[in-house]
């Protein structure tokens, strides 16, 4: 989806009530089947049509018919490459060739996000392209364990910091295979290289090829700082204004880990209360200065803004808001607690935003409704 199309979608979302939203590009279309034995063809067609229109069990926001189109496209693409494919509901199992034993799993999270941005007639080409890239990356790793295709200077000049979406990686795997990753406000930040339309994350086993963790981080940060940030888009007015920077590269969100450099690059001087930051998707970062005029409602507005931005993204990252002020670390300004969504700003900032006597350690209902 191009920038103009994304902006039109966002404008419609902002004007529409929260309960009226539906994924972009989502249209009901059934999968044609043969009439069931012993049932009149018209009755069978009616039953199939009704079944296809029901919500799919494994793909939220998709009907059974739409999910069937995606699954069928993935299986056809896998089989076209010479491998066996088995539908497991929430993923496709790939076996054959180097994919021995339990085989490999192809999930639907990225495909579903891409499909929401496209008309159904374009799903087949999108699915085929996605499967080919994923299989190619898996084949490289399986044929040469630990290989990224580059080493030394060639690898370092391609590195960039990249967040690992918590919902996309098992915590055990993250803890065991990415011990070098850094925590930024609760989000794990790793290192990656870009290949075509996919990113390959570096695991611990790859760091030696880059000269070690220290050299890898130094190179990745230098590459990030040398890259452009893009043009800003301002949403809202006055103290409620949110400035969004977005591009087509997943390094954009990584600026969250380097707020001082980011603000200096965009020419924003933070006040004593600092700034609110958000990364709705890997290719986006948004900022809102905190001033004496800021209120809890500004936090609520930014949460709602994040939700709209991330809803149609291929690589969503976090619905939360983060806080930074000079001299301190990046921290999560909103977190999910057992009792619900909580506002977790530093006390001095909390008192300025919510009032000294408010006791606002939990986010009001207006904010909770925004996430």
TrEMBL record:
Name recorded for this polypeptide: Uncharacterized protein
Comp. bias (Low complexity): 35-48
Ranges annotated as biased composition (Basic and acidic residues): 10-19
The organism's place on the tree of life at top rank: Bacteria
Region named Disordered: 1-52
Organism annotation: Sinomonas halotolerans
